[in-house]
């Protein structure tokens, strides 16, 4: 039978600095030294690292790839195929971050309510399907004409499809609570539970902080809205500068070239900011 270790500690009268941890073994109370307890904790953390970090690294890798795939699609010719203007492409890139900022707090609350395994699994499957649909949404309309897909469409397919598979694996691979994890022994589950109880960093919402929940979320939302407005203002300023350079008179263009020279730089009249 596994040894179930609890958090209660005692001090040996013979050595006041020798902390001991009460444990249960075969139904009997026993004690282990603090050194043994720390050794068990290190072994548990190493087991968790070996199990979780490689898998979570893969999830983060595909998360990163799917955040930048529209940039790769631009290199592969999505603008030419869809006849996108620079402004339309910029909005396609920016709209993701607007949704990211607005939904970050609600998504955290939802994950806490339904559990990480279900939440991560759902959003990965949905995102993977969206990525694939971004490729076929355009390709299906041309299937009667040709069956060959563009390079940028393959980018969405090859980077979106694994997310669907990883989402399914995530549901079975990750656990929500130590008690529900199948690959930990009873002793390890108890150790991990006690570790989480001791470490207040993992307590995202404490009961005594309930009166401050709304205020703290409003402050976070205020910062995000301020950043959004700052980004929009900067975008407008750069757009105005591009418009100004598009309508330079020959005399103004000559003057601008004289000021900055022939070297390419952001002050060159032919330079345009990406907005």
Automatic annotation (TrEMBL):
Where are the bilayer-spanning segments? 91-114, 120-143, 155-174, 218-238
Q: Which UniProt keywords apply?
A: Membrane, Transmembrane, Transmembrane helix, Transport
How does this protein lie in the membrane? Multi-pass membrane protein
Q: Name any GO cellular component annotation.
A: membrane
List GO molecular-function terms, semicolon-separated.
Answer: transmembrane transporter activity
- Name its cellular compartments: Membrane
Per its UniProt record, what InterPro entries does this chain match? MFS_trans_sf
Q: Which domain of life is it from?
A: Eukaryota
What PANTHER family does the database record attribute to this sequence? Answer: PERMEASE-RELATED, TRANSPORTER, PUTATIVE (AFU_ORTHOLOGUE AFUA_6G08340)-RELATED
Protein name, per record: Uncharacterized protein
Q: What is the organism field in this record?
A: Rotaria sordida
């Amino acid at each position: 039978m596994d040894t179930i270790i609890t958090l209660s500690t005692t001090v040996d009268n013979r050595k006041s600095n020798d902390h001991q941890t009460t444990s249960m073994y075969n139904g009997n109370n026993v004690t282990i030294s603090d050194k043994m307890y720390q050794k068990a904790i290190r072994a548990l953390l190493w087991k968790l690292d070996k199990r979780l970090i490689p898998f979570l690294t893969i999830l983060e890798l595909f998360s990163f790839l799917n955040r930048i795939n529209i940039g790769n699609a631009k290199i592969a010719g999505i603008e030419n195929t869809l006849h996108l203007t620079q402004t339309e492409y910029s909005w396609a890139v920016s709209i993701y971050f607007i949704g990211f900022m607005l939904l970050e707090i609600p998504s955290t609350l939802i994950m806490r309510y339904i559990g990480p395994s279900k939440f991560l699994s759902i959003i990965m499957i949905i995102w993977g399907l969206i990525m694939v649909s971004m490729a076929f949404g355009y390709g299906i309309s041309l299937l009667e004409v040709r069956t060959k897909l563009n390079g940028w469409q393959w980018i969405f397919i090859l980077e979106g499809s694994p997310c669907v598979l990883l989402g399914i694996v995530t549901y079975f691979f990750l656990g929500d609570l130590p008690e529900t994890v199948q690959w930990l022994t009873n002793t390890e589950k108890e150790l991990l539970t006690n570790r989480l109880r001791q470490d207040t960093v993992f307590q995202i919402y404490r009961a005594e902080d309930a009166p401050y929940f709304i205020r703290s979320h409003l402050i976070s939302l205020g910062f995000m809205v301020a950043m959004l407005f700052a980004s929009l203002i900067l975008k407008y300023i750069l757009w105005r500068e591009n418009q100004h350079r598009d309508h330079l008179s020959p005399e103004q263009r000559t003057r601008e070239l004289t000021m900055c020279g022939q070297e390419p730089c952001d002050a060159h009249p032919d330079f345009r900011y990406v907005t």
